[in-house]
Prior knowledge:
The chain is α/β, with parallel strands linked by helices and 372 residues long. The protein has one domain (3-368): Rossmann fold. It contains 16 helices and nine strands. A nine-stranded mixed sheet has the order 1-2-3-5-4-6-7-8-9, sandwiched between helices. The mean pLDDT is 97.
Amino acid sequence: MSIGPFRIEIPQDDIDHLHDRLAQARWPGELPGVGWTRGIPLDEVRELAEYWRTGYDWRAQEARLNRFPQFVTEIDGQRIHFLHVRSRRPGAKALLVTHGYPSSVAEFLSLIELLVDPAEGQAFHVVAPSLPGYAFSTPLSGTGWTMGRTARAWAELMDRLGYERYGLHGGDVGGGVSGIVADLDGDHVMGLHVVTDPMTAAATATFLPGMADGLDDGDPVDKLILERMEEFDREGSGYLKIQNTRPQTIGYGLADSPMFLLAWIAERVHVSTDLPVDRDQVLTNVSLHWFTGSGATAAHTLYEQAHTSDWGAPPTVPQGFAVFGADETVRKLVPAPDGAHWTEFERGGHFPAMEAPALLAADLRTFFGPLR
């Protein structure tokens, strides 16, 4: 039940070792004219790797992370790391935010600042845990860490922190976990807010049971959804399929090669975003995976979810949805109940907390402001 303070302090030897490994990288060849069609291009990775080695300042990013109060506790045998940033504003509400894959709490740094101390409107006490198997919520204690088990741990965490009422926010895996928390702990949850985008919604429909039921390729919008689902299954799901089936095998590369880890995560950021993301923020996320060895353990949690039927039940709490890069397809896929808060943004993608934090913060204030 104990909760202890935590501070990130990566040994200098670990940083020096990373720089040495980057300097000694062996590079693959590249066929002419293939661009992004076969994975992240060589020039992209070379440039990022060189900046990671010679320009990126881990200590500055570590100091930025350490400006936020951090803690660790153990729940269900698993070490859980989390940020807990309390607002000084009267009437602040508790908000539990959960990242997805391949991400970390670093995704939320700009968003947290806007939520805890807004220029106007609703303020929040923000709790941002690292998913089991990610960053400092390692080592992974064992098998079985599905989204449902994580959701039960999150409900326990909020109880330990003393929050009788709280809101939930997430996208990707974080959206799934948040939805299950809303179902399991609905008596304490004031509302659930989820972010998505058209390509993520279509990709999710390829594996989430029932999501694509009723689609008809004779309808133009449905036809577009089905085409996107087929494209994801054929061309975009390789990273997921190998982790869903062989996490141990892929884990050797993710844990031992900074170049492989960088390419693996940077490709996902590139194909999943619409607005520019600061490369220091991308590299902070990659660095957290590297220093903690969590590229491999995160893959194991994806395997767990792919081999379970526990996806939770539809929550009954108030729900809000923010769709970035919106088009007409998302309404057909997302199971939003009647009367749900729904906001569409013309730009943005899979990582709105990094791409458009001000827009996301404003939508969170709008949705949670009137809820009790």
